[in-house]
Amino acid sequence: TPTPTPAPSNITLFLFFDENENGLYDGRDTVISDMVITLKDAQNITRGVAPTDREGLVVFYNLEPGDYMLWAMTRPLGYYPTTSYPVAVHIQQGLNVEARLGFASSQAYNHLPLQLRASQP
User: What's the pTM?
Assistant: First the structure.
């Protein structure tokens, strides 16, 4: 009898601006489009690079079982992750995994006091 072809595994990542900084997509949160995501395997080898679509999604298809990390390569300036980062994913044969990555504005970063000091030439 022939050996059955293993079913492929996929990872779907959803990115969003986490307005209330609770790590969940809810309320006034909005999606992040056009953010470049890199997928690396357990040996730190890049297995894919793709931007999120207008719905905040990026999908990496036909992956072998194992451990993967998802990195946001074009993180918005002044924002920090509100969910686990980088996103660690373990996939098994034939299973599709969904993960989320939220970012919030760093209030401390955006409101740092500016001190000016006059100097003599």
Answer: 0.81
